[in-house]
Amino acid sequence: MPTVPGSRPTAVYRLHDCKGRLLYVGSAFNPKVRLAQHAAEKPWWPEVDAGRTIIEWHDEERAAADAEHAAALAERPTYGHPKKRIIVGYPSPRPRTMRPTPAPQLAALPPTGELVERSPGRYLLRIGGRTVTIATPDGALSERTANNVLGALRAHGYRPPINPQHTGHATYERIRLAAAA
To answer: What pLDDT, in 10s, does the model give residues 10-64?
Structure first.
């Protein structure tokens, strides 16, 4: 039984590849849902050997967060890194402030990948050695659909071009403006 009010059982999971190498350590209240999210979002997911997944349960959220952090530090997974966890009900280590990246630095970053609209609502993303097709259900670009397309682009590591002359700039801007509508 949890000793902290509002805490609930939490799992720490370890994902390994077929050779037994640790790929990722994470924690979740519902590991089945979280692993499905990883499968949909993470480019490294195909390396995971589901038969080697280890799930250990902790009575409290804090205990799981501590175990996850300790495991990430000690076992050095290939993906992910030890993170400072802030859990509701526990003191924060220190306030964090986010500083925006200065515009000149942002403009200096090269775009990643190539985005092409093949037909209305059907986009082709080439990034690294992968090619991904992102298709909208009906070819229309509603606000919700545009936000979903932007999320898919981010999930695959796409960084849009800043230069309006660059291939993909107009396509990305059309999606971004539809999402902001």
So the answer is: 999 999 999 999 999 999 999 999 999 988 888 889 999 989 999 999 998 888 8
| Rounded-to-integer distance, Cα 58 and Cα 64, Å | 6
Residues in the chain: 181
Q: Is the Cβ–Cβ distance between 139 and 119 less than 8 Å? A: yes
AA letter at 21: R
CA distance 40 to 147: 16
CB 70 within 8 A of CB 49: no
What pTM did the predictor assign?
Answer: 0.47
Chain Cα centroid distance, residue 108? 24
- Between helices 143-155 and 169-180, what is the axis angle to 10°? 130
Backbone angles phi, psi at 91, to 5 degrees: -65, 140
Q: Which two tokens stand for residue 83?
A: 């993170």
Helices (H) and strands (E) in the chain, counts: 5, 6
The domains of the chain are located at: 10-75, 103-180
